[in-house]
Amino acid sequence: MEPDRTRSPDKDLRRDIRRVTSILGETLARTEGEDLLALVEQVRAHAKSGSLHELPDFDLATITRLVRAFTAYFHLANITEQVHRGRALTRASIEEGGWLERAVARIADAELDRDELADLLGQVAVRPVFTAHPTEVARRSTIDKLRRVAALLAEPDSPRRTRRLEEAVELLWLTDEIRIEPPEPTDEARNVVYYLEGLSGGALPDVLEELRDRLVPLGLELPPDVRPLRFGSWVGGDRDGNPHVTPATTREVLTLQAVHGTRLLRTLVDRLRRELSVSDHVSSVSDELTERIGLLLPGLPEVEPRYRRLNAEEPYRLFLTCVHVRLGLTEQRILDGTHHVPGRDYADDTELLDDLLLLHRSVLAHQGRVVASGEVERLVRTVAATGLTLATLDVREHSAKHHAAVGQLLDRVGELATPYADLDRAGRLKVLSEELAGRRPLARSPLPLDADATVTAETFRAIRWALDSLGPRVVESYIISMTHDADDVLAAVVLAREAGLVDLPAGVARIGFVPLLETVDELEQTEFILDALFGDASYRQLLRLRGDVQELMLGYSDSNKAGGITTSQWQIQLAQRRARDVARRYGVRLRFFHGRGGSVGRGGGPTYDAIMALPSGTVDGEVKITEQGEVISDKYALPALARQNLELALAATVEASVLHRTDRRTPEQARRWDRTMDRISSAAHARYRGLVAEPGLAEYFVTSTPVDLLGALHIGSRPARRPDSGAGLDDLRAIPWVFGWTQSRQIVPGWFGVGSGLAAVAEEVEALQEMYAEWQFFRTFLGNVSMTLVKTDLDIAERYVGLAPDRLRPLLEVVRAEYDLTVQRLLAVTGDQALLDDEPTLRTTLEIRENYLEPLHHLQIELLGRYRRGEDDPALERALLLTINGIAAGMRNTG
């Protein structure tokens, strides 16, 4: 039956939302009684008419049931919107061309030299990095139920589908949204593995196959073992401020990844084994493959006699049986912690890839391209991308930890004229560089360190174990957070030397070291930090051993918290330009790692626009971007969305690498626009810092938001503050900072200061309009701010501020004045009559949500008042936590 092309996609979306929420209503009536359903409708009607204050006071049990009902609505509406977003993207790909198709078409139009193009595309490496940063409030159990709803919505309408939807919705209602206790890092790792397995088994090879096919018209071939798309993870490796991530945790998580990775690969190998039933009576195979089977079989008694007999004339099946058995032995070796046995288990993914490339060569030579480019090549590409562990683990630690450990070792040797801690940065750099130039160990193992420093040093030994046991790709980068200067990096390198990971005289550098620039001050010092690093003889030698590639991580969240969104975004833009220019002087290739959060206040926003807005010449084929919290489930929970999101990130990276190597602005535009942006940033920064410096802001923030309840949600293993930090705003992590403002609908991190910045250059309105029309960075920046402004509701915020002491309430007027100014100045630049005028569907969606969000805010404010007055009832805290979950679901953001 032909589809009805007259139907509006919006109508279809509204129909499906009505369907699932009607089922929710039936569920409430069936399980809780008609009274609850009637009460939900009553509360919703009061919200719509603006008369929530007329509602009677409800007991805690009733409030809890109401909150759960509204939260369930948002969960079901969200998943339905995701299903339709996936359909819309797929439909657009068919009608307008997919992301890669359009990107490659633009590249073809540029008529670049073929060899130059091949070199550029050969460097493409996109890596989404999954983190455990706690911004996903929905439990895995809830997400599983919602995925079931999504799968059923994709089916044709039928009585069976309706019955199964009813079952899924009722199970969703019966599932508790609140975690009993915080997850451990291994729990967080299992959650990431859940997504990685799904991506590796479907969307990943699909997108790589699409890239291969789109390059054919350009006369370019994508070798099956290249890695234009890979995955990374921080879970089990991110030690900064998380005492629960120990060296033992790192080993445990990598073992978990390896077990799941090898099991997935065994499944894929088994699938290919069933497909590749080539008989040597019909078609031949390579001598190389025959010889390989002859070498493997004697050492693999685990290959059952029936396979040896049944597949004797089907050499590919017999070969893949050997691969399958070897993967099983690899899994067992990893679990048992025993040593690799050549010819039996695989030492690492390189050995496995060698076997599969041998198979691919044979199929290509003897059965031809049609068979070779199908399932055989998909398996090769998957293994090349995922390795044995699904993702490469990054390890991160705070710079102060490295100095503490190195200082103890150097002071014990007794060669310094002054204690290490008393040296200035230049003195530290000199001492550390000289130490790296030699080969002596500072101490014998075990290192004579205190307990805290021992853990820091043992982390490097855990990395060495991982590289020795699982291969060179399992850990590649060691990230130094709060990097202030070059000595912060070299301190980590010295500890790696003590663990045998670095030996410059012997030409050994098994991992790379990544400065993380997190605050505005450090971003402004990018050029000097890199110049000191690249100019140091020892570090320059390390870089040569690492292929002259330097990874640099940019922190969006902390720079935003410290300096406001305008200055954060602008300084990150400038930092990339400065880093690019320094690297070119030294002949070093840079790989930028963008530490973006989910919310706009932490660097979030559409990925494609974000990549295209990066400065010219900074992508250079490689992009790493953190994926965290609710963003992971939003992007990757559904197969259609997973494929689209991977493809768009890859397409943007390909296009930016090839077509945006030089500034798209004229030199005159660049000078003029940069000067204007400097002025905007300066005024915005002053306004933002003025707010942060307001007396009582910390108390205002805590008392007018539910931020003090974030820890009770148990959504992550990492504390909200770094250990041993103070109680002020400066020591608060960026996630709770954004979380509190978002729940109270002030959302200060997403827009505050922008209005003052734009007002400072109000006389240049025509220039600003030109910047908005022609400069991707500026357009993307203002677009993200617009979305945040639409989600801001200061009338609702005023009710939260009513919980704060009287003397602090005037601070809301400071926020309101900046909000009004920001809306006014932004519309003057965009030329729109209202925010998001150019995205009416999104605006309408957000407005509809308000009718369901307002009751949750109303109930949360009432409960917060009781909580702050000292009412001690576990049911009260539970009800409050449920309101937080509901508002997060309605806002599609936590932190």
Provide structural commentary:
By secondary structure, the chain is mainly α. Helix content is 63%, strand content 6%. It is built from 36 helices and 10 strands. Helix 3 (60-96) runs antiparallel to helix 35 (840-868), helix 8 packs across helix 26 and helix 18 (486-498) packs across helix 20 (526-534). The longest helix has 37 residues, at 60-96. The protein is globular and about 85 Å long. Residues 1-7 have low confidence and may be disordered.
The protein's oligomeric status is single chain
The average pLDDT score comes to 90
Structural classification = mainly alpha
Question: What's the total number of strands?
Answer: 10
The DSSP helix count reads 36
Short description:
The chain has 895 residues and is mainly alpha-helical. The two termini are 45 Å apart.
Task: Itemize the secondary structure elements and their pairings.
Layout: H1 9-32, H2 34-49, H3 60-96, H4 99-110, H5 114-122, E1 125-130, H6 140-153, H7 159-174, H8 185-215, E2 232-233, H9 247-275, H10 287-296, H11 305-310, H12 315-336, H13 349-366, H14 369-386, E3 392-398, H15 399-413, H16 425-437, H17 451-470, E4 475-481, H18 486-498, E5 502-503, E6 508-509, E7 512-517, H19 520-524, H20 526-534, H21 537-545, E8 549-555, H22 556-563, H23 565-586, E9 589-595, H24 607-612, E10 622-627, H25 630-636, H26 639-659, H27 667-692, H28 697-703, H29 734-743, H30 754-759, H31 765-774, H32 776-791, H33 794-801, H34 811-830, H35 840-868, H36 874-891
Parallel strand pairs: 1-2, 1-10, 2-3, 3-4, 4-7, 7-8, 8-9, 9-10
Antiparallel strand pairs: 5-6
Helix pairs in contact: 1-2, 1-3, 1-7, 2-35, 3-6, 3-26, 3-35, 3-36, 4-26, 6-7, 8-9, 8-14, 8-26, 9-12, 9-14, 9-17, 10-12, 13-14, 15-17, 15-18, 16-18, 18-20, 20-23, 22-23, 22-29, 23-27, 31-32, 35-36
